[in-house]
Amino acid sequence: MTGDRPEAPSPLRRRGPRPLVLHLTLAMLRSSASIAASSGWRSAWPNSRANPEREAEALAAALATGSAESFSATVMQEALRQDRALLAGIAAYRRHPYQRTLADPPTRWQEGGTRLLDFGGEGPLVLVVPSLVNRAYVLDLAPGHSLLRDLAANGLHPLLLDWGWPGEIERDFTLTDYIAGRLERALAAVEGKVSVIGYCMGGLLALAAAERRPDRVQALALLATPWDFHAADPAQAAALGRLLPLFEPALAFGGALPIDLLQMLFALLDPFGVTDKYRAFARLNPDTPRARLFVALEDWLNDGVPLAAPVARETLQGWYGANTPARGAWRIAGLPVRPEGLRLPSFVAVPARDRIVPPESARPLAAALPGAVLHQPPAGHVGMVAGHTAASVLWRPLAEWLRQVGAAPAKPRARRRR
User: Where are the alpha helices (DSSP H) in 96-171?
Assistant: First the structure.
């Protein structure tokens, strides 16, 4: 699902983790901080996923000797061990033989680089809307790790909206162009009402489209969808919004926010998350299913999509900087997006271990949607939809809910006043 680009990179051409220089620099800074002030790095980086208890045991043994030289040497050895593990993990990832082999299903509708892919199945129609900043195939990642194919095998007929690579036309798109344009025309290409699933940023797009076209939408499921961008860490969100002027030269030059700059923004949400997981990967047997899934997900993460410049400005300055969705100030085609006025069955999945969309950001959306079903799986942002436990923590409950609302007779709804 990568348009005119290869489905997955050759192991010899893998460039991840992207941007590599940033992740290596962060690792260097953490090692340097550990050596200079071993007791202070954890408080300085509270979002780190590192487990300090094991490292502390070795340091405590050195402290017990009462020798400053022994303590310093232990810190240095631990820093070097972590750096070697990181490089070993990156090398193991780059030489792994995994290749994505799933073929695209038939295209039901297309406009520009955007395609509506039909996964077949017997049952109610479901339209799935992914994010604009990552490839759609995370929802059809690999055999046994495909939300779309699982829905098709469990009494539903899923359609995936693959936004594609933004070309010359799409680089001028605003969120209104994507929602009131492409997404609404995709809805119109499907006969009758459909249930709509939105994942991450795609959940915000799906919500806005459902408000605009309740005549086309039967039910709405939102997976790991942010709403209150300031709920978890307002200072961090505001800081991301203030980065926009730094990106303006790139936006003006290419008409889009480049992939590596997008990856840098994600890295700022969890500075050491990438380096920690590559250290862990270095310890895995490469022939195990867990190792293959790691490589599949990393290939997807590193196979990103640029974000159209107008959308980058709207999201950074509006969503993150001004928190426009939660304030009722986010508008599509001039009209505010306000979930409290939506009268549709709704399902909101808020993964408990999400570091991209903190639960504090997503739960207010469930509270705002009248009568929403709140589902809180014990998983992370990506693991919830494509991980080893995805079938039990999300796919099954979601499919059951979709079958129920798909079988229920449609009820007339009052027209919403704005």
Answer: 147-152
Q: Give per-residue pLDDT as tens, 219-277.
A: 999 999 999 999 999 999 999 999 999 999 999 999 999 999 999 998 888 888 899 99
Is 121 a member of any domain? Answer: yes
- Nearby residues of 304 by Cβ (< 8 Å), 6 or more positions away: 18, 133, 134, 135, 259, 262, 263
Closest CA to 221 of 413, 382, 407, 402: 402
Report helix, strand or coil for 9: coil
Last residue within a domain, chosen from 303, 322, 354: 303
Q: Which residues pair with 129 in a beta bridge?
A: 198
Tell which residue, 81, 26, 341, has the closest CA to residue 210.
Answer: 341
Residue 162, pLDDT > 50, answer yes
Write out the residue range of the structural domain in which residue 83 sits. Answer: 1-95+275-303
Residues constituting the chain: 418
Same domain, 395 and 356: yes
Q: Is the peptide bond before 364 cis (omega within 30 degrees of 0)?
A: no
